[in-house]
Amino acid sequence: MVNMKKNRLNSLKSNYNLNILLNDYYKEMEMAGKNKKLTAAVNLGFPVDLLHAYDIFSFFPQSHSAMYASLRKSREEIEFAESKGIPFDLCSEIKIALSSLYYNRNYIVPLIKPDMVLCSNQVCRAVIKLFEQFSHYYKVPFFMLDIPFVPGEEVSEDSVRYIEKQLETFPDFLHKHFGLELHEDKLLETARLSQEVGMLWYEIVNFGATIPSPVDALDLFTHMFPYMNMKRSKAVFDHYTMLKNEIITRMEDDISAVEDEEIRLLWDYMPVFSKNNYFRRIFQKFNAAVVTNTFFLPGTSKECREGTCGMRSDINTAGGLFKYWAGQFSHLYSGVSINKKLTAISDLIEKYSIDGVIIHKDNSCKPQSLPQQELHNLIRGKLGVPCLTINADSADMRYFSQEQVTTRIEAFLENL
Amino acid sequence: MKTLQFGYVCNNVPVELFHCFNIELNRLFGGGSDFSSADRHFPSFCCSFVKSVFTEFKNRDDLDGIISSISCDAMMTMGDIINVNNDGRHCYTFLSPVSTTNKEAMEFYKAESKKLCRYLAEITGFPFSPRNLQESIKNSHAVSIKARSIVEKLQGIPGSKHKYGDWLKFLHLEYDRNPEDLFAKMGEFEHQLIPGKDQVHVHRVFLGGNIFYIKEVIDAIEESGFKIVDDSFCFSGRMFKRTFAQEDIARLDMLDEDGLFGLLAKKYVGQFPCYSRNIKNDVINGDDDIYNDIKTSRAKSVIFINIKYCDPNALQYYNLNKLLKKEGIPSLFIEYDCQSATIQQLITRIEAFSELL
User: Which residues have C-beta within 8 Å of that of residue B300, sequence separation ≥ 6?
Assistant: First the structure.
């Protein structure tokens, strides 16, 4: 039997189950394309539950790119895209998606032709262009969910109403283009199942607050995929139950993610997918554990920060659900002001007993990276918590200088 | 009472509202060479135009505030950073919709304009007057029509002593005048547009992109033998091509307050696109506003100048270029970074492009 305490990089056993789940998901995606099942290309910030209530298969083209990065196949795809004139400074995930779209570069996982393109502006403006291109290239209908930015501390009622009104038009969009009818009962049932999966996921994430932390947040990040992308099936529910039980067992057996944990870190933004093991090794050298991630936050509202933002049991109409979703989406971490982000980070620092913050400044993801320098200054200045910014890219390793990053992390951790 | 002076940047700010409260607007063109204050707040891969606008606002003590509009990711961050580091001046974030194609976006724009209107009434101490807004809309419309008339003349007059570059320079210098003064100045400019000695070799070029006025680049294009016939720059082509509908102007006096805000929404949500928004344009299949403008202007080539790190523009150009290639229209794509400006390199590329044609 493997001694997890000695073999520090031994990952979660549930990672294996995640691979099976992902494999099944991509097989289902391929089959959906062949069996003429309705499919939708979506991005972060679009309520996938709404699609699943119609039995529409949803997929995230950016996840396809993340997969290439995890498998260390992204560089050749990116360079191929650049050789075709796709702009050099563009986000690496979009470059990979475009080379799949225009040049059929699908040799790892197939990116199927969607029947519709559903876009939210929560990620960035460049992704809107990518999604428009999908829609135009395949000549399929496009639906935009515009989620306004939150400039201050409060979300305006007009913004929430605007999101709600757009969501209300979505059933008409599906009816107009595909003749589909909304079944309210099915929608509510899907939303409730999703709520259960969500609660399970946040229970898992909260284990990171235990000292020492039984789970590494960088390892946990990949387990977000089923929650973000996949239909809330029994397989997904079972996966999170398995993950939760594994973590509980670890806690009972006094196994922590990092042996002799001394330093607890918060990671801001996505991991560098192909360098997860490198980061875990270097952190472990200093008995440092990454215990949570800003991406794990369900939202930045007070209720979300306190863990009480779940769907109320008295929501029993589609309209009520759209209103609830509108409120939730308007608080997503990616679309709020620096001050609101800082409040959320401050809560995480307290809840997870954080000693230092690592900010991943992702060269590709401009909207998320642009405010990070200011956040860095405020975390240090206002919150008095040490902070380190690492320059990298979630998929393009040409922007990652390992020796420089090592030197900086070592200096940072030595001084904590 | 002192007249308030506000800075603003993008085309989705309803300038008519400011004029009707007698607030002087200053379009921030950025540029400059000192980025030290911006570098403290923004990463190296941030659009240098945004950094330069941030620096300009910081350095301009004459401005009482700024209207930051959510036109793109970088502009959104700039407004946020100014808010966080508030130096006591007004900083208002105007939420304009990203979507331009649905009626919900129009309603949202209307609601946000009304909110802005209440804010302007509060800081100026003046009550909102629908009559003033009507006047302001009329003046703004007249300016746009005059601007298009000048561009059409510049396109048609061979060998005029005025070049298109003079028009861009004129806009850069005179932009901040109130609409009535600007209209009068435009009249003077238009009056001077008389044919001159015809040039031996002219090659009609359309300028695309999102840059501000860069004199050296515009001069280099014209000195290389190009005749600029139209543009899609934010401060000129994009600004004036879409205005109020003539029939709406005709019934302006009959509109109530809500109707007037509806007109603002109609103009600004559906106006000539900034590619960082979701627009109906289908550049892959040839239905694109810039592409149509290129065709209408009868340009024989296109020079597309993109501010470095503006992904939506660069991405749109990628497809526009494919479309132009099919049509046999040569194009040149230039990226400009004002922080590490290498004007001479750009000029060399423009000259090389001209020699190839």
Answer: B203, B204, B205, B329, B330, B357
d(C-alpha B111, C-alpha A156), whole Å: 11
pLDDT in tens, A257-284: 998 999 999 999 988 888 888 999 999 9
User: Tokens standing for A58?
Assistant: 């949803």
B321 contacts in chain A (CB < 8 Å) = 85
Q: Is B311 on the interface with A (CB under 8 A)?
A: yes
- DSSP 8-state secondary structure symbol assigned to residue B276: T
Does the distance separating the beta carbons of B111 and A144 come in below 8 Å?
A: no
| Contact flag B95-A159 (C-beta cutoff 8 Å) | yes
What ipTM describes this predicted complex? 0.93
Least confidently predicted of A149-153, B211-215, B222-226: B211-215
Give A-chain residues touching B46 at CB under 8 angstroms: 366, 370
Tell me if B80 and A87 make a contact (CB, 8 A cut-off). Answer: no
CB neighbourhood size of A404 (10 A): 11
Check whether A6 has a pLDDT greater than 50.
no
Taking one residue from A and the other from B, the number of pairs with CB-CB distance under 8 angstroms is: 150
Is the pTM here over 0.80, yes or no? yes
- The candidate with the shortest Cα–Cα distance to A359, out of A339, A340, A344, A374, is A374
Closest partner CB to A125 (pick from B40, B276, B318): B276
Handedness of CA B287, B289, B294, B295 (dihedral sign): positive
